[in-house]
Amino acid sequence: TSIDGFEVIHSGAFFREFAVKCPIDIETINKRLLDKKIIGGLELGMYYEQLQDCMLVAVTEKRTKDEIDCFAQVLMEVAG
């Protein structure tokens, strides 16, 4: 939530997955993430018209802090 333009769309508690509203095209974000060997978020607009600019992000115990930091860094770069 500290990255300009990105916001978590539900304020309640979540378990492993959360939806993020994005300031730029999700396909663009996911391509940049793949360059870093990170599988990006699910483009929710494909399933819910009202969530065209949102992606579902999943983070499990298998992800390290470095991997999550890299994910956040890519988001900062693409939002630029």
What can you see in these coordinates?
The protein has 80 residues and is α+β, with helices and mostly antiparallel strands. The protein contains two helices and four strands. It has helices at residues 26-35, 65-79, and strands at residues 7-8, 17-21, 42-43, 54-58. β1 (7-8) and β2 (17-21) form a beta hairpin.
Compile the SSE list and pairings:
Layout: E1 7-8, E2 17-21, H1 26-35, E3 42-43, E4 54-58, H2 65-79
Antiparallel strand pairs: 1-2, 2-4, 3-4
Helix pairs in contact: 1-2
Could you provide a short overview of the structure?
By secondary structure, the protein is an alpha+beta fold. It is built from 2 helices and 4 strands, in the order ββαββα. A hairpin with an 8-residue loop joins strand 1 and strand 2.
Helix tally? 2
| Strand composition percent | 15-25%
Q: Regions with pLDDT < 50 over 5+ consecutive residues?
A: none
Mean pLDDT: 92
Number of strands: 4
List keywords for this structure.
2 helices, globular, single chain
